[in-house]
Amino acid sequence: MARTTASKEVPDGPHGDHHSLRGIFFIMLGSFSFSTMFLLVKVMSQMNTFTLVFYRSVVQIAICLVDLYKKGVNPLGPDSGSVRFYLVLRAGFGAAAVIAWFYGIQNLPLPDAVTLQFTTPPFAAVFAVCLVGEHWKALDMIGAIVCLMGVALIAHPTWLFGNTDAVADAALITDATDSSTMMKAVAVLVTEAGASMAGVAYVCVRKIGDRADAVVMVFYYGIISLPMTAIGSKMLLGTWNVLGDYEQFSLLDYFLLLLVGFAGYGGQWFTNMGLQQETAATATLATSTQIVWTFIFEILFLHEEIDIWSISGTALILGFMMVVGVIKLIESDKSAIIVDTDEEKGLLLEPSREDEGYGAAVTLQSQGSNSL
What we know:
Layout: E1 3-4, H1 21-43, H2 49-71, H3 81-107, H4 110-117, H5 120-132, H6 138-155, H7 158-161, H8 175-208, H9 214-237, H10 251-277, H11 280-287, H12 289-302, H13 308-334, E2 338-340, E3 346-348, H14 358-371
Antiparallel strand pairs: 1-2, 2-3
Helix pairs in contact: 1-3, 1-10, 1-11, 1-12, 2-3, 2-9, 2-10, 3-4, 3-8, 3-9, 4-12, 4-13, 5-6, 5-8, 5-14, 6-13, 8-14, 10-14, 11-13, 11-14
């Protein structure tokens, strides 16, 4: 009959009993870096989305090449056809997701756009069921419903909620108001489309596993983004020009574009550093501070109007993310229990494989910005 005894001291780290404050600090720095990138994208709304994504990709390609050279890693990744296929597939869906998210950031209040990005896990869970054969669990279904409710609150379409503006008289609703409502609905749909494409990208990351360096994934994203921005610009804007009016750019414009790339890469680097020292469950909670940072930036710099519906939707999605994070945190702590057998031989339980479905998707959400 097995019995549980007091566990031996387990070193700090991703699977230790004690959580590293340094790891949490790094992850929160990563969230701050990503939030800063989102703020810069918002500030530079005069540039079209494809131009911003193009310059971000150029900066990140340069940083990746330097990083990979220092590591002695082949930028193309391992010499495996299946791995490179998923690297390209992940990069394509990741690039499409970033383009959609940048559009949402430019056309929605910043906290709304960032919150909508956190609806990726239910999409990833669904795609994991369809493409990887994972099991659909109760938490998956609850997560999908909660996120759908949160999105509905943020968008609060008039056909569902009625007119929630201060001017309730239909006769006073102007064409400008209708146009604004339509533009917001389009921006919400585009951002959610980005979340769904990110879900596919995260499933590809799971298929790749640890067979490719994380920097290689970011490099592929940058390379694939370049033609995708050009094609998207031609299809939607009627021009191949993704360089923008670079001759009219000021030094400040170039500096901000450079910061967009560095902030994005800094977010990836800090988050990776944190994940090396902390559990993915804690990372999920720490990554959620992105929403907090965006609200702070909104108050200090942007001063956009945020209504009670948006705040309620944000609280719903963020609250559920935190609940899932706490659940995973408790489960990861339990995995460190040492069990003695009848022969009094201690056995340290190996950390279990990441939960399938929503739990794994939330884990990837905490790491997701690393590869997009």
